[in-house]
């Protein structure tokens, strides 16, 4: 019942203007924030339909003590989700009215001349075309298992493994209980859109991480060698941090910062579940961290994913900012420039990845250009992942070195990634600065994008 109560509280908070969806979810205290986020998002998406069902079935009139927000969550999961998971009187109440609700749903479909539940969204709140085509990406947590064992586990659960994808079109064609190995990232599995794995044993045990493909790019491209000292500057909720730990094989040191205490607590839970060690969490604004502190004298890699407009997220729902104003973009870009410039002050820094989940040039290419102009020739943009189809907008010479991602071209959320490396005086500087993915300095079992992954030895810890 805790899940439904938490979801109802988030809905009430949205309606009363207490905050946005993400902030309310992370501040809810509910331990499984992604499960909560998914339930609230889908309830909001179906909200117009749910209101009609509640009115038609007169559920709130029949059950005076049932709050509207809780009723929406219960009816969503009863009719459109995976079925009610809670116990107690609310589950019994919802099931008592199930026949009446199902009859009202059938009448609604007849009135709108549709046969599928999803088609009911079209008249008032169309389902996002972008969201509906982005697959479910599953990153294998190599701190606990390996790709082969995860594939075997899913096959035992009735999923059909189709091998390694050869193109984005193969990902687009996925359906049913079929899945593929991603064509670009060697530890990423791809399932059809809307595949729900939040209750899967592999997820609850930390053997897999549910993470969008574009969100996996920053750690993959930073690619620190095992034993490196790394900063994750704006780390919560921690998926990128756990990815860094997996790349480091838990060898070395990660310093992870976030200013929000509740987000830090959530991140601590996520990292513990993922088996991350050698990571120091700090509730601290990264801008207040002293680059001259001896504690950070060996930091050679920084992952910087600062606050942004979130305009690239395809699963946006009511309660989140849809089209930031010019003033809002300028304020965000100002903060992003300050934090990027600050990150480049760490004396031993060799490589930095700057990323956002924004589609706006003001937060992406313009920020990188402004900071590089400030820093002179100390750092240079480098070209990584030459086979990646989406490149930076031509805002300045060299912007094509950056990566962009989009639902249409890469079947991911909208994203931006730039890789900066220190440039030593007297070193050769090729005009196009090509550093291909296979030339990454990280000596790990990483493959050239598009190549078959190397066989790994099976880990002792096997999911049964």
TrEMBL record:
The gene is Nsun5. This is 28S rRNA (cytosine-C(5))-methyltransferase. The active site is at 357 (nucleophile). InterPro entries: MeTrfase_RsmB-F_NOP2_cat, MeTrfase_RsmB-F_NOP2_dom, NSUN5_7_fdxn-like, NSUN5_RCM1_N, RCMT, SAM-dependent_MTases_sf. Residues 453-464 have a biased composition (Basic residues). GO terms for molecular function: RNA binding; rRNA (cytosine-C5-)-methyltransferase activity. S-adenosyl-L-methionine binds at residues 234-240, 258, 285, 305. It comes from Sakesphorus luctuosus. Keywords: Acetylation, Coiled coil, Methyltransferase, Nucleus, Phosphoprotein, RNA-binding, rRNA processing, S-adenosyl-L-methionine, Transferase. GO terms for biological process: rRNA base methylation. It comes from the Eukaryota.
């Amino acid at each position: 019942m805790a899940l439904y109560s938490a979801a109802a509280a988030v809905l009430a908070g949205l309606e009363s203007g207490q905050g946005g969806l993400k902030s309310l979810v992370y501040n809810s205290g509910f331990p499984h924030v992604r499960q909560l986020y998914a339930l609230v998002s889908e309830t909001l998406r179906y909200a117009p339909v749910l209101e009609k069902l509640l009115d038609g079935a007169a559920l709130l009139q029949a059950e005076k003590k049932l709050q509207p927000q809780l009723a929406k969550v219960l009816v969503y999961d009863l009719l459109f989700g995976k079925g009610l998971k809670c116990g107690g009187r609310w589950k019994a109440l919802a099931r008592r009215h199930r026949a009446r609700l199902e009859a009202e749903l059938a009448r609604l479909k007849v009135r709108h001349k549709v046969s599928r539940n999803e088609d009911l969204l079209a008249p008032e709140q169309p389902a996002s075309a972008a969201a509906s085509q982005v697959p479910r990406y599953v990153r294998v947590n190599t701190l606990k298992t390996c790709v082969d064992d995860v594939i075997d586990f899913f096959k035992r659960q009735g999923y059909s493994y189709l091998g390694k994808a050869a193109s984005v079109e193969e990902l687009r064609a996925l359906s049913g209980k079929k899945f593929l190995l991603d064509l670009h990232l060697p530890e990423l599995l791809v399932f059809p859109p809307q595949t729900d794995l939040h209750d899967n044993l592999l997820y609850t045990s930390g053997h897999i991480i549910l993470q969008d493909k574009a969100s996996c790019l920053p750690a993959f491209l930073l690619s620190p060698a095992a034993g490196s000292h790394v900063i994750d500057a704006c780390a919560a909720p921690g998926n990128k941090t756990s990815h860094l730990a997996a790349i480091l094989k838990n060898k070395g040191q990660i310093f992870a910062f976030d200013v929000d205490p509740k987000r830090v607590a959530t991140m601590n839970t996520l990292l513990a579940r993922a088996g991350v060690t050698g990571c120091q969490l700090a509730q601290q604004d990264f801008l207040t961290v002293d680059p001259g502190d001896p504690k950070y004298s060996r930091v050679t890699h920084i992952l910087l994913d600062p606050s942004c407009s979130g305009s690239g997220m395809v699963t946006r729902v009511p309660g989140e900012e849809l089209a930031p104003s010019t003033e809002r973009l300028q304020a965000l870009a100002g903060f992003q420039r300050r934090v990027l410039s600050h990150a480049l002050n760490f004396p031993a820094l060799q490589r930095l990845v700057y990323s956002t989940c924004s589609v706006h040039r003001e937060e992406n290419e313009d920020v990188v250009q402004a900071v590089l102009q400030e820093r002179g020739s100390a750092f240079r943009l480098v070209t990584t992942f030459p086979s990646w189809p989406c490149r930076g907008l031509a805002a300045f010479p060299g912007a094509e070195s950056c990566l962009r991602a989009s639902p249409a071209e890469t079947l991911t959320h909208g994203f931006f990634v730039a890789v900066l490396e220190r440039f030593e005086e007297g070193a050769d500087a090729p005009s196009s600065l090509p550093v291909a993915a296979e030339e990454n300095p990280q000596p790990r079992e990483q493959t050239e994008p598009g190549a078959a992954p190397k066989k790994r030895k099976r880990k002792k810890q096997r999911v049964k």
